Amino acid sequence: MIKALEETTEFLQARGFEDPELGIILGTGLGKLVDELEIIAEVSYNHIPGFPTATVEFHKGKLIYGKLDDKKVVVMQGRFHIYEGYTLWDVTFPVRVMKRLGIKKLLVSNAAGAINPEFKKGEIMLIDDHINLQGGSPLAFRGVEHLGTRFTDMSEPYDQESGRIMQEIAKENNITLHKGVYASVVGPQLETRAEYRYLKIIGADAVGMSTVPEVIVANHLGIPVAAVSVLTDECDPDDLQPVDIYDIIQAAGKAEPQMITLFRELIKRIELKPVS
Question: Which of 157 and 241 is assigned the larger pLDDT?
Fold first, then answer.
């Protein structure tokens, strides 16, 4: 494992990925933040040793290094999912590589369905906590103690300072930013009416198929992480309408400019402290 991480890190460093300060993971339909970058280097996932290949057609599959508001960032334009047939090690491998490259904070976005009836399609939710319903842990493997603390504390998985700043940014820019709990499921099928009722009962405000494994590993590595969900559909089990994945992509695209505003302004304002 360590050898694989070292090989990937050295490969990227040789291609100009030098000491990024921030890591960013862009979710489904949310790849346009890269248009704001001063790009220095980029590599397709299928050219990077140890990286899986993105198999979802609306995930670009590139790792991009550049500058955004005078901060050096490494951006995943497209992520990996369990539903593509990958392991939790595969899904979170890029986070471990970004830590070795030098990131001090991780920003994550995803597209999600709104469970909370007060949350509407096209709005954004700041993730304050999560529920892992993916049936496993990215830390459950032999030798994990060589990469970080096995029994990782998750009492506060999301960086409160970044969340507070994003709430300020949202208020300043008239962006509706809810705060809530994200439930992560395996997918790729969407949920049934009974499953939506269950998710509401257990305290979920939104549901998706990603993010939680990356957040667990970020906490394992001591990297502060902030995450937002772009709400692409309303999951009312009493009035559930069929949802096409391309409708979700379209809804994510319409809300994406607000997410970009949140991330850009956050990047300008946050103080980046060394990660131990």
Answer: 157
What are the tokens at 70? Answer: 């005078």
Tell me which residue of 269, 256, 268 sits closest to 68, measured CA to CA.
Answer: 268
212 DSSP assignment: H
Give the least confident one: 44-53, 92-101, 111-120, 221-230: 44-53
pLDDT one-digit tens code per residue, 216-260: 999 999 999 999 999 999 999 999 988 887 888 888 888 889 999
| Buried/exposed 125-154: b ≥16 CB within 10 Å, e otherwise | bbbbbbbbbbeebbbeeeebeebeeeebee
Q: Based on the number of CB atoms within 10 Å of its own CB, is 225 exposed (0-12), middle (13-18) or buried (19 or more)?
A: buried
Is residue 257 exposed (0-12), middle (13-18) or buried (19+ Cβ within 10 Å)? exposed
Q: Where are the domains of the chain?
A: 2-269
Model confidence at 96: pLDDT above 70: yes
**Which architecture, in CATH terms, is 2-269?**
3-Layer(aba) Sandwich (3.40)
What whole-number distance in Å separates Cα of residue 5 and Cα of residue 14?
Answer: 14
Distance CA 256, CA 260 (A): 6
